[in-house]
Amino acid sequence: MTTKSATVAERKRTLPRTQFYAAVLASIPAFQMGVAIGSLNPLTEVLTEHLQISATDLRGWPAIVSIFCPAGFLGTQLAASVATLGRARAVNASAQLSFAGGCLSGACGLLAAKGSRAGFALLFLGRCAAGVAAGIATVVVPVYLSEISDAGNRGFFGAFFQLAVVVGIFVAQLFAVLLAHPSGFGWFLLCPAVASAVQLSLSPANLPESPAWLRLAGRGADAAKVCDKLGLDPESSFPTGAIGHLAPLLLGSGGGGDDDDEEEGE
Fold first, then answer.
1. H-state helical runs in 39-116
2. Which residues does 181 contact at the CB level (< 8 Å), separation at least 6?
3. What is the CB neighbour count within 10 angstroms for residue 104?
4. Does 216 or 15 have the greater pLDDT score?
5. Has this prediction a pTM greater than 0.85?
6. From residue 68, how far is each of 75, 100, 128, 135, 210 by CA, in Å?
7. Helices (H) and strands (E) in the chain, counts
C-alpha cells in the first residue's frame, strides 16, 4: 500500500499543469466529434418535423445523418496538409470548422422557418463541417498529445482522445433528450460553436506548438522554449513507436530542418 501511495504521489508531482491544460484543450475537437456522433438520434422526431422531411427517404433525414462519415473521410485526407502548418494550428483548424458547423446547425433551429429548404441546407452544411473537423481531429490530436507529453505521462494523455469522444457521446445523448423539443433543439445544436469558441480563446496561451514539429521544421530555438514551458526534456521530446514514425509523415514537405542541417554538417 505504501508503494502504491508513493507511486500516486510521484505521478502528481510529475504531471506538469502546462501539459495537462494543453492536452485538455487539444481534446476538445475529439469531444466535439463525440457530440456530433451522439446528438442526432434523440432529435430525429423533432428535426424531421421542423424540416418537414422524411425519416426514411435517402434525400431527407438519412442524408443529414450519413454525410458526417464521408465528410470525416475528407477531413482525414486533408489533415496531413493542414498539419504542415503546425500541429496546434491543425487542432485549431478543427475547432474553427466545429465552430462553423455549430453555427450553421444552430441557425437551422433558431433562424430557419419550419419546413424551409434553408433549414435543411443549413443543417446539412453544418454536418459537413462537423465531419471534416472530426476527420482532422482523428489524425492530428493523437499525434499532438504524444508530442506535448513526456514519456512518463504519454500513455495517460494519449487516452484523452478516446475518453473525450466517449464523454462527448454521453453528454450529447443526455442533453439532446432534455432539449428535444421545438424551442430547445436549436440551442443544443449551437453548443458545439460555444465549446469551440472557448477553445480558440484559450489556445493562444495554453496550446503551444508541438516541440517535435518545431524541431522537424528547423526551429530548434523555439522548440527549446516550448519544451521549457511544458517541462519536457528537449532530448526526449520525440515520441517513439508507431506514433513516432507517423508524426514526421504528417509534417509533409515542410519537415527535415534539423536532420538536413546535421547531414550538411557531416
1. 44-51, 61-66, 68-83, 87-110
2. 46
3. 22
4. 216
5. no
6. 10, 14, 6, 10, 29
7. 14, 0
Q: Tens of pLDDT along 62-83?
A: 999 999 999 999 999 999 899 8
Cα–Cα nearest to 192, from 106, 118, 114: 106
Q: Are 105 and 127 in contact (CB under 8 A)?
A: yes
Q: What is the DSSP string of 207-249?
A: -PPPHHHHHHTT-HHHHHHHHHHHT--GGG-S--SHHHHHHHH
pLDDT at 236: 57
Residue with cell 519536457: 232
Rounded distance between C-alpha atoms, residue 261 and residue 120, angstroms: 54
CA dihedral 135, 136, 138, 144 (to 10 degrees): 180
Distance CA 189, CA 108 (A): 9
Could you tell me if 97 and 130 are in contact, meaning their C-beta atoms sit under 8 angstroms apart?
yes
Is 91 in contact with 141 (CB distance < 8 Å)? Answer: yes
CA-wise closest residue to 91 among 258, 213, 191, 222: 213
Q: Which of 163, 141, 165, 152 is nearest to 243 (CA)?
A: 141
Q: To the nearest whole percent, how much of the chain has pLDDT over 70? A: 82
CB 150 within 8 A of CB 236: yes
CA distance linking residue 185 with residue 109, whole number of Å: 7
Decide if 129 contacts 97 (C-beta within 8 A).
yes
